[in-house]
Design goal:
Elements lengths: L7 E5 L4 H11 L4 E6 L2 H15 L3 E5 L5 H14 L5 E4 L14 H29 L3 E5 L12 H21 L5 E7 L6 H5 L4 H5 L7 H10 L7 E4 L1 H12 L1 H9 L6
Parallel strand pairs: 1-2, 1-4, 2-3, 4-5, 5-6, 6-7
């Protein structure tokens, strides 16, 4: 999409990592940006950068996607400040990579609330507004892990697979109104994600050769806006592996447990 001037864009998970880079990328296209995340201090800094790039509005709103009332308040503020919502990019999410039998219930529940349920609620509230204005686009950042699950990622993979399935249905529901839903499925990205997911740092070190650059990947995502693209899967090697997985699942299981198991 070439120009987002006068468009209102909501980016969740915008305080750091891919979400912050996406916020900066849409601001560079002239958008009014609403940035949402838990960490207000970091969010405010990104919003300041957005204003410089866009010469438009950038609003930092603290919001925890685990909390339904905070999501409701987020949309109330968007309605009050802008009166419309043209684009939502959900980049919020986290992972914790341990064997399924060792994962505690509290972390399991939190991961599903943030990665799946919170994003679904944001998408629903956005879709309601977009249907009223007969225009808009929803972009949800899921993961290649939602297509190719590997050891130590059972809960994370499940949370992203749920989001992929949700998007597939929502896309069909909104298509008659001309509203697109694009699912972004990245592999590993060079961000702070792994400080929580794998504090040892071993996983990111082992996949550094195929890890995505967040600045370049954010630019790629923004370049696909407005094209009614269904999915964006990167890196290409892992996207190709997913296709092979569907054709030969037993071989896919072997590869997922060996060649693509870097944890």
């Amino acid at each position: 999409m070439g120009d987002l001037t006068e468009k209102t864009v909501l980016v969740t998970g915008a305080s750091s990592g891919l979400g912050a880079q996406i916020a900066l990328a849409v601001a560079a296209k002239g958008a009014n940006v609403v940035l949402a995340a838990r960490r207000q201090d970091r969010l405010t800094k990104v919003a300041d950068q957005c204003r410089i790039l866009s010469q438009a509005q950038a609003v930092a709103i603290q919001c925890d996607l685990e909390q339904v009332n905070e999501i409701d308040q987020l949309f109330t503020q968007i309605d009050r400040l802008f009166g419309r919502l043209d684009l939502v990019i959900n980049a919020a999410g986290f992972g914790y990579l341990v064997p399924a039998v060792e994962m505690d219930y509290a972390t399991t529940a939190r991961m599903l609330r943030v990665n799946s349920l919170g994003v679904m609620l944001v998408s629903q509230l956005a879709a309601q507004r977009m249907l009223r204005q007969s225009a808009g686009e929803i972009v949800n950042v899921a993961s290649i892990a939602g297509k190719i699950a590997t050891p130590k990622s059972a809960v994370y993979a499940a949370s992203k697979a749920a989001l992929i399935a949700y998007d597939n249905a929502l896309r069909l529901e909104l298509k008659p109104a001309g509203i697109n839903v694009m699912t972004v499925n990245p592999g590993p990205i060079e961000t702070d994600f792994f400080k929580t997911a794998d504090p040892t740092g071993q996983y990111l070190d082992s996949v550094a050769w195929l890890a995505l650059n967040p600045v370049k990947f954010a630019a790629l995502i923004v370049s696909k806006l407005g094209r009614h693209q269904r999915e964006l899967n990167r890196p290409r090697l892992m996207a190709a592996a997913n296709l092979g997985y569907q054709l030969a699942p037993k071989l896919g299981d072997w590869l997922a447990g060996t060649v693509f198991n870097f944890k």
